[in-house]
Sequence to fold (400 residues):
Amino acid sequence: MQTKFSQFIRVFAVAAFLVSIAAAQQTRVFHEGDAWTEEVTGSLPAARNLKVQVDFGSVRVQGSSQQEITYVIRTHSYTSNEKQARREFEAYKINASSHGDSAVIEGNWEGGHNHFCSGEFVINVPRGLELAKLETSGGGVSVKGISGRVEAESGGGKVQLDDIGGAVTAQTGGDSIEIGTVNGDLHLETGGGKIYISNAKGKVDASTGGGNITLVSAAQGATLEAGGGNIDVKQCGGKLKVSTGGGNIELGDISGPVEMETGGGSIRLGWAKGVVRAETGAGRIELNSISSARAQTGAGAILAKFTASNGERMDSVLETSAGDIVVYIAPDVALTIRASIDLANGHRIMSDFSDIRVTSEGGDWPGPKSFSAEGKLNGGGPTLKVRTTTGDIKFLRASR
Fold:
């Protein structure tokens, strides 16, 4: 008897819970524009975690000072027949429930996806939410104003995140990813859209199959990879590694070592504190305010400016198969210079420094076959090797 009574109590509790959920949810159907719309509104108790998984529709989560979770779900049917629209709404099952510390909202299409429908899930949550885990097969994802983590996945829609206190993992099959301010680490991946990151307090790991990547500010370093687009970094507070299959690379102020690689685009660096490595298959390389560098291009010019105050100093190499190399050296930089032109054919080595001795070989017309230069500046230091197969080499005094 006691066992049957306990079972009755549990069944009654579950039934009461479901009734309370149903009472907290309202549904209406109305016509607007060229579509019929079903609007479902409801609320759930505050929870530590939010999980949203829907077959189609965009998902937008907004944090606020409220103490419960509220939602508005709109599904649109683009048929002109209200009866047909209601059948489609009935086939898209929407469930909202609580399970322990988690609130769950699901949208499941029964019988296969109907391409004449679209939808939006708008969810307001307490700002203290610890985790938002969101997944949609065919819409965008937007989250703003929560203190916890975000895990977002879309089959092909845009992902937009801002004012996030924890770490972020975001993935979309082909649209863009836009990030405002995130205090935790970032892991971003898109099949082909652009990636824009405004302010990352943690480490950044981002990749796109074909779009551009723009990083305005990263406090703890970044790894960026583009299948063929351009990469633009304004400021990075740690180690930076970037690669693109064929786009240009533009870097501003980097407070750590830098690795850059592009299959055929140009490379430009504004300032770096650590060792710089740059490689391009056929583009121009420009490195400003560096201490050490290893730069190579298959066919393009190289410009490098060496200063004394940018961190670790190591041996450097500047090399191109076809192009000029211009090296600016600050007055207080100590270097041991070794330079060569393999096939001069009218090209030569020029220097502002008397300590650099230039020699040539093969003096018959139409000119020397090769040039070389050696010397020690300020008593010598790490070796700087400069080599071009065909092109001019210049060593010039920098203003500072």
Remarks:
- The chain has two helices and 36 strands.
- Residues 8-23 have pLDDT under 50 and may be disordered.
- Residues 230-400 form one domain.
- The CA atoms of residues 45 and 68 lie 5 Å apart.
